[in-house]
Design goal:
Helix content: 25-40%
Mean pLDDT: 89
Structural class: alpha+beta
Radius of gyration: 22 Å
Number of strands: 8
Shape: elongated
Strand order of the largest sheet: 1-2-3-5-4
Largest sheet: 5 strands, mixed, barrel
Low-confidence stretches: 1-12
Number of helices: 7
Order of helices and strands: HEEEEEHHHEEEHHH
Length: 243
């Protein structure tokens, strides 16, 4: 027997209110609207259309690094934004480019509609610290935490083949999706175990640790982006070339 309520339930709209979020990216849509990608506390990444938003005088609500409370409706992947109120965080202007990179990274790596409160809290913590300049060590720490939380990065304390602890008197190579593998000191891209240990413990005082973190994380991130290009990274490289 057919259920007389089935059709009405299927057509029922999903409505979400008062969801804490941050805008990751925006683009124009038709003549007056915007398509917005948000990172939300309880729903992960969501995409919404803000109808008439380009005519809205309160344009600050549609900027990055603003903690917003948003409402939306809709049953499909593209939601309809119904309300937004925001409060800009005190972000140092020197941090705009690295934070835009972080926004792109989150938007590219996190699936739509899957909550990830640990990543959200890590991102919020980074923004709250960005009243001061975000140095390279802080950015590498965030990248490492993000890749670990998403399951894209192995345990940096352990040797990938044996499962034993990294030893300071040996040398290692990094293999994507495996981790650090013991190798001769003369091997290509070998690094001392002490440098690996320093990185695993969050000790970025030595330039060699920063170089290792940047190299390993760049290769791991690129592998998991599957060919996607990050505009902010290209902008940064162009700025470095012009200096």
């Amino acid at each position: 027997m057919n259920n007389p309520w089935r059709h009405s339930v299927t057509l029922m709209e999903t409505r979400v209110t008062d969801q804490i979020s941050f805008l990751l990216r925006r683009r124009d849509w038709q003549n007056t609207s915007l398509i917005l990608d948000f990172f939300t506390r309880d729903y992960g990444c969501i995409r919404a259309i803000a109808k008439g938003a380009r005519r809205n005088p309160a344009k600050a609500s549609y900027q990055p690094f603003v903690m917003s409370s948003i409402n939306w409706s809709g049953r499909h992947e593209l939601k309809t934004l119904t309300a937004i109120e925001g409060q800009a965080l005190p972000v140092d202007e020197g941090n705009y480019l690295p934070l835009l990179y972080v926004n792109e990274l989150i938007a590219a790596l996190l699936p739509q509609g899957e909550p990830n409160p640990q990543v959200f809290n890590s991102y919020l913590s980074l923004l709250q610290r960005s009243i001061e300049v975000i140095d390279e060590a802080s950015l590498r720490k965030f990248e490492l935490e993000l890749m670990q939380l998403l399951g894209y990065f192995p345990d940096v304390f352990l040797e990938a083949t044996t499962g034993g602890v990294i030893r300071d008197n040996l040398h290692y190579q990094f293999v994507i999706n495996r981790g650090f593998v013991a190798c001769p000191e003369s091997a290509r891209d070998s690094v001392s175990g002490q440098v690996v240990i320093d990185w695993a413990e969050g000790n970025y005082q030595l330039e060699s640790v920063l170089r290792l973190a940047k190299s390993v994380l760049r290769s791991t991130i690129d592998f998991n982006l599957h060919g996607k290009a990050l505009k902010s990274r290209n902008v940064y490289l162009e700025m470095m070339r012009r200096k």
